[in-house]
Amino acid sequence: xxxSGIDLHxxxxxxxxxxxxxQLAQRAYENGATLWSLTDHDEVGGQAxxxxxxxxxxxxxxxxxxxxxxxxxxxxxxxxxxxDPENTxxxxxxxxxxxxxxxxxxxxxxxLEEFGVKNAFEGALALAGNPDLLSRTHFAxxxxxxxxxxxxxxxxxxxxxxxKPAYIPGTWATLLEAVTWxxxxxxxxxxxxxxxxxxxxxxxxxxxxxxxxxxxTAIEVVTGSHKPEQYHQYANVAxxxxxxxxxxxxxxxxxxxxxxxxxxxxxxxxxTPVWExxxxx
Length: 281
Known about the structure:
This protein is α/β, with parallel strands linked by helices. The protein is built from 9 helices and 7 strands. The strands form 2 sheets. It has a 5-stranded mixed sheet. The termini are close together.
């Protein structure tokens, strides 16, 4: 089967997106997607709805997740694709991450209070579709809504980005845990938007080598989190390490994403798309 408009990375109200899984499926379809995956943060609660909506529209659907990982004291995201969403090992691991998010959110709200942001926890919670997945994105939306910043990027640049005054690191999975949970559930582990991470060349080399040794097999090349010139940079990384190439919009909402769901440019030539391994399913 030939696919077009492939989008294997986006978020719904089940994590930190603004559209429901059904609304996302409809938008992806209207934008020309034929193969789609919902990859909410640390949560598979939207998978059944997403699959049902996608299939009803005639799209092919792949199960997805984006797992929060701490590696070298920084947050890395590992996408899982084409796995069993009822796998016990995976579900238990994700629950452990979600348990930490609520306590982290309380500390973050207290820190923001010191900068004059009142009722941050309650305000962010009101914007969260899933209270167990309260995130920096929800706090940022609240702060823009209340007029503390003009846009969400300003919130991250001034307050909530890594190393900023109100940033609170999460207790995430290890890289080995995330890859193991995905692979034990029969899925493919993918390094999400590598261009976003602030590592040195030698650290990136160690990340890619370690990920591959642990059983990771793919990397995002084309993503809304990459600049167009980075597509070829990470295409070369995929070729060098023998990774499958993945792509996705990283769409969160119509007014805050750089790429619309379902409107993902094609991968550069010479790569092995991650979905080719599933064509016979």
